[in-house]
Amino acid sequence: MKRKIITHARILTLNAGMDIIPDGTLVIEDGRIKAITTGGWNAAGEEAEITDVAGMFVLPGWVNTHTHLPMTLFRGYADDLPLHKWLTEHIFPAEARWVTEEHVRLAVRLALVEMIKSGTTCFNDMYFYEQAIAEEAARAGMRGVVGESLIDFPTPDFQTLSQGIALSETLAERWQGHPLIHPAVCAHSPYTCSAETLQTAKRLADRLGVRLQIHLAETRREVDECLARTGKTPAAYLHSLGLLDKNVVAAHGVWLNAEDIRLVADTGTALAHCPKSNLKLASGIARVSAYLQAGIPVGIGTDGAASNNSLDMVEEMRFAALLAKGAFQEPEALDAATALRMATVGGAKALGLETEIGSLEVGKSADLIVVHAEASNMLPVYNEYAAIVYAMNSKNILSTMVGGEWLMKNRQLLTLDKDTIVEEMKALGARIKK
User: Fold this and answer.
1) Which residues lie closer than 8 Å to 23 by C-beta, 6 or more apart?
2) Per-residue pLDDT tens digits for 53-80
3) I need a labelling partner for 185 at 20 to 30 A (CA). Which of 35, 326, 352, 407 fits?
């Protein structure tokens, strides 16, 4: 792999000190950051790919901590509905009919196009046919955490729980140790999985040494039904089963009471905050500032494109910051720097990848984006973090790199054929619409 040098960058490291280097250089070798220096770079006599990014920000790429990538297949399919009706009456039946390995691969390729163009360099996915999802992501050069969604009824790719567990084991065996793909185990939720299924999934994650993903306290209805069935809130119920733990990332966490927050914090469980999906499904607004104050690792996720309807982490980060202020009348609840950390190093920590990605530091993987900081919609820049969170849009992202390889450079995708993917998805969408 040829050495890559990115020079004359305004580097936002997102390290512990939140250091900003106004005019710096990144030296990348074998996919990792070998050096970060101030000023330009004299490359005379050396063989290297040099990229001059004067007038641009360079910062870590986004870590999307909760996705269902193949649900690009159902973007706009069933909108303006509450979660449980949306799921049981529309999405589950559509998945039973249309989710095949072939369709999953196409839907994932479309999702990868959208994510790369909007600056995501790592995603955390739970769905079906995750082996295919991992293969498509690896082929495109994208980093991903992937886990087969275990659930107590037949799915498009397994009919019994034992078959789902076997798929999870095969996924882990194939991808553990891979430079980009990180296997996980997934239990869909406390309301679609029995206590036995939940505990089986947790034991499997522990044995394999991987993350466990689950949905948690997404709606008030979920809380009410769990209380009626178990006498406990969803968080307390999962805690009683041993499913709150430092290797667990729980999506949503909208309806957590004070005791729930304490349990999540004390166990080291991470949360994935999905503000746009929670708004669209009228699920509620998570009090993220309270979770952060309690010491809970919190990342940001888009959820699936069927309930968002976007995989754009720039929008998600801005929504997270603005909602925390407006919903609770607290203008200082989630400042720009905190929102940006949630979308990068916070997400990396939630996924157990903070030593590998999430900030620009020597020794870490070169997962980064280049942002046109002198675009008209971003000027003047008085505060870099505010410019990114409140002013930037995804089209300001010029280039995306994962593991030292450019996936997009100067807005041109390098590992995916966007035009072909779009035409294939248009044809499939027309069939589904009929």
Assistant:
1) 8, 9, 10, 38, 39, 40
2) 999 999 999 999 999 999 999 999 989 9
3) 407
